[in-house]
Protein: Ferritin-like metal-binding protein YciE
Amino acid sequence: MAKTISAKDVFLSGLRNAHAMEKQALAIMQPQVNRLQHYPEVSALLQRHIEETEGQLRRLDEVLEQVDASASGFKDTATALSGTLAALGHTMADDEILKNTFANHAFENFEIAAYVSLITTADLCGASSATLLLQQNLDEERRMAAALHDSIEAVTRRYVELGGSDERADI
Structure:
């Protein structure tokens, strides 16, 4: 017999997943910022979003506290590790900046979907007090996804431009 899952169960799981997702985002972005040399606009964009992500984690902690729950240390650690490994994997690519740009854009869209679902489950289980905080996170993710999308052409052009010189184009 299948286990019954309530909207609150889905909401609590989603909150823990979102917390871990934001830890993963930090683990992905921080190494990139440290390596960017020829792409100051991307570096500034990532640095700003790192600060936003830290705020998102604080808001998620606040929502978790409101519903008398806590983050999953295991999920936080596991996803942060996978984020670190993903960032490390791209460092070996000749076109690291392009791969990171594409991956960052995809990850932001994943986060957008996660927050839309989380806001929906908050509504379904009557946790309306969480909606404003979660909406702030969603709005920041949407802005970041748009900024990354808008940067793809410029990053690609800069990469190709540097590739034709003696400069290392990838970072």
